[in-house]
């Protein structure tokens, strides 16, 4: 475990302990996190362990006040556990390996958003006092270490370079499913550890569906082509959305695209350390609504301006309707959009790093300065 992860663990533990003490909810002796694919992956397991490679299915970690971590793995994961350099125990079938390790402790922190009811119940049965530390885990995920930033730069570059190649992937008659598969393949060729989320490829009117699922819709001349996808480096994600037109774009398509681009560029000028996230979102959302009012069309954005990103694609904090100040070393998307049912939609999204003295666009290698028309 590197010193940055260990320090963050200590800070996380101290923050949770302070909150619990103030609310008279008792002390905190250790934090218990699980990684169970069958219950939905809790990537906070990787946050506190610093592990960047491997699946670690059905593994757990116990973290202590000094930031140190002990792993609990099944025999199938023992070789991976050895490679981490962390202390570990192999879970023995029929034996209470983890419960025995926690013997003598009382207050156990858990991520209530991810732990299963049976796991929480088992801790209670053994007279442990469980404490929800999900708020502190979210705050810890929001502030990236230097090692995490390196990983996310790499993921951002893979994502952006893939986006730049999409015009060459397009052909009339291809389906959304085919384009999504080609995007995933290109990311893999460029070194992605895997898709950060299910790739979106939406043609024509389907581009007005924010989370469109790629189907058998075929590409026709004049269609919007909206692609939303992300690569990973280790466990860390990137996210980008770019929009193209198959053939020559109409004036209405260019107008919508240029409006959303100007809103994104304005948001990128405003975003900085300490700015209020809600105010940033409201300014962009209002600009989108004014555009549709001007053209007398029932369009909207309908979602936040962005979301923090890291171990999760949607990593807890959003730039939306919640008040909070943007922290240092914060990585988020900026993705204004305008959707008009029956016509199509435009979303322009980049992953950015916000630091004290700079804003770095991690997906800057993907063109966006004008609506790209793909000739056929």
Structure, explained:
The structure is a single chain. The protein is of the alpha+beta class. The protein folds into two domains: about 5-140, Creatine Amidinohydrolase, Chain A, domain 1 (3-Layer(aba) Sandwich), CATH 3.40.350.10; about 145-375, Creatinase/methionine aminopeptidase superfamily (Creatine Amidinohydrolase, Alpha-Beta Complex), CATH 3.90.230. About 35% of the residues lie in helices and about 20% in strands. Strand 2 and strand 3 form a beta hairpin. Helix 1 runs antiparallel to helix 6 and helix 10 (about 250-270) packs antiparallel against helix 11 (about 275-295).
Based on the model shown, name its key terms.
single chain; 376 residues; alpha+beta; Creatine Amidinohydrolase, Chain A, domain 1; Creatine Amidinohydrolase; 2 domains; six-stranded mixed beta sheet; four-stranded mixed beta sheet; 35% helix
* Helical amount: 25-40%
Quote the beta fraction: 15-25%
Shape by Cα distribution: elongated
Kindly report the spatial arrangement of strands forming the biggest sheet. Answer: 4-3-2-1-5-6
Work out the radius of gyration: 23 Å
**CATH secondary-structure class of the largest domain:** Alpha Beta
What's the arrangement of secondary structure elements?
Layout: H1 3-22, E1 30-35, H2 44-49, E2 59-63, E3 69-73, H3 78-84, E4 88-90, H4 97-101, E5 107-110, H5 117-125, E6 129-132, H6 134-142, H7 146-164, H8 166-169, H9 176-189, E7 200-203, E8 224-229, E9 232-233, E10 236-237, E11 240-246, H10 251-270, H11 277-294, E12 306-307, E13 318-319, E14 330-334, E15 337-340, E16 344-347, E17 350-354, E18 359-361, E19 372-374
Parallel strand pairs: 1-5, 3-4, 5-6, 11-19
Antiparallel strand pairs: 1-2, 2-3, 7-8, 8-11, 9-10, 12-13, 14-17, 15-16, 17-18
Helix pairs in contact: 1-6, 10-11
